[in-house]
């Protein structure tokens, strides 16, 4: 699942990538406000963005002419700017350029000193200490004129955009060494990122208002973590995630192994229902969300993924759940109909591969799936000298080169039980014999 870098919503929250707000009656017309934006990502070298508003007829999506909007922007309940904007076409384009060198915000209409005399093109530049950091930005939009600059009306819309901010953190794992974890915050800036190598837990915090009024306005809170694939201790089939000590449902944690060859992406997604559940169960309602993420002791089998062309669905599990170097793992899989629940497809050809790292082919087998719905099994003996990330690939399903799917796994070091030489074992056994026998003689 790919998440866009701009998230819009119609009622002060955090939701869709772009949308048309619900219609409002102005005069005898159903009028909606369309909101879009050029995507961008704040990564401490922010370059700006463009925000587009279009006031249009709900019946045919045609923009109204001669529109005047009074737009006010807020962040963390602090006013950023307020200005009256005009557009002959009903189309507004705000070119926002963050600039912290000045404490004031400058808003200029494109066209310089002749703007207004030659009409209002609807293009404006907003420059100053605004949109310079990630978080939730709210807008109050008042429609003042529509259809004609002489036709004065009064109708308001509420909207918000959630601007993501990227931060990289270098952590040190006892087994995997130094790793760089990336956190993309979509709701507000995060702080206090820490990693505990002993219990394999990442923690970080984000400001959040738990008041009932704010909970009514929140649609979704989204955090994204990029886990480097060499960080094998964190490439698992399932995670445990907590917010303020309350464990999140499995549906709140989403794993994306498709978007990057370098990283696994883990999405933490709290919808309104989850936020309300946490509010009811948390013991100490601080003005923040405290996140914790760690590998689960459970194994989320089977792992199910669609093929690239969505023609099939692959269901995979393996035993033992932990793949160990030098040992044999049995992989069990089924090829399912993507539209019917638990319905296997008829017997089809497949290519099954295991790739070490990016390109190192470790195992390959071509075969044909069972025709009775039973799971297909393949035993793979892993070499003694490899530990690290692997890709389990299914290709050419039913001869279609676009019917492929990839699932990530990790080969771990086996747990070695210390062995003692025979000589010391004999000495130890003799010592215990003396300890056991000696008391018998002392009682006679």
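^ Assign residues to that structure.
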């Amino acid at each position: 699942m790919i998440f866009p870098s701009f998230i819009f919503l119609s009622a002060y929250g955090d939701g869709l990538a772009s949308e048309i707000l619900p219609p409002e009656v102005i005069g005898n017309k159903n009028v909606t406000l369309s909101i879009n934006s050029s995507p961008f990502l704040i990564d401490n070298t922010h370059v700006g963005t463009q925000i587009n508003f279009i006031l249009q007829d709900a019946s045919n999506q045609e923009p109204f002419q001669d529109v005047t909007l009074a737009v006010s922007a807020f962040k963390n309940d602090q006013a950023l700017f307020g200005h009256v904007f005009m557009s002959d076409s009903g189309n507004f384009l705000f070119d926002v350029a963050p600039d912290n060198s000045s404490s004031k915000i400058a808003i200029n209409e494109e066209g310089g000193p002749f703007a207004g005399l030659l009409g209002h093109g609807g293009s404006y530049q907003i420059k100053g200490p605004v949109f310079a950091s990630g978080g939730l930005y709210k807008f109050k939009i008042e429609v003042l004129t529509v259809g004609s600059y002489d036709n004065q009306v009064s109708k308001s819309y509420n909207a918000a955009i959630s601007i993501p901010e990227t931060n990289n953190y270098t952590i040190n794992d006892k087994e995997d060494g130094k790793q760089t974890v990336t956190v993309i915050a979509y709701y507000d800036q995060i702080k206090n990122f820490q990693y505990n190598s002993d219990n394999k837990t990442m923690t970080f915090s984000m400001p959040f208002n738990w008041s009932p009024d704010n909970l009514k306005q929140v649609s979704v809170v989204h955090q994204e973590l990029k886990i480097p694939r060499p960080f094998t201790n964190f490439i698992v089939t399932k995670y445990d995630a907590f917010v303020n000590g309350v464990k999140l449902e499995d549906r709140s944690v989403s794993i994306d192994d498709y978007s990057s060859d370098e990283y696994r992406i883990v999405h933490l997604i709290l919808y309104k229902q989850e936020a309300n559940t946490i509010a009811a169960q948390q013991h100490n309602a601080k003005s923040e969300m405290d996140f914790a993420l760690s590998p689960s002791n459970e194994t989320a089998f089977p792992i199910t993924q669609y093929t690239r062309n969505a023609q099939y669905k692959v269901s995979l599990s393996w035993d033992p759940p932990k793949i160990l170097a030098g040992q044999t793992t049995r992989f069990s899989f089924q090829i399912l109909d993507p539209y019917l629940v638990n319905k296997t497809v008829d017997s089809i050809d497949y290519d099954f591969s295991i790739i070490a790292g990016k390109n190192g082919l470790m195992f390959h087998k071509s075969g044909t799936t069972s025709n009775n719905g039973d799971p297909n099994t393949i035993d793979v003996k892993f070499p003694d000298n490899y530990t690290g990330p692997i890709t389990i690939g299914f290709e050419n399903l039913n001869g279609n080169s676009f019917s492929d799917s990839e699932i990530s796994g990790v080969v771990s070091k086996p747990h070695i039980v210390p062995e003692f030489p025979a000589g010391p074992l004999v000495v130890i056994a003799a010592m215990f014999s003396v300890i056991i026998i000696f008391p018998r003689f002392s009682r006679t």
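The CA atoms of residues 4 and 17 lie 6 Å apart.
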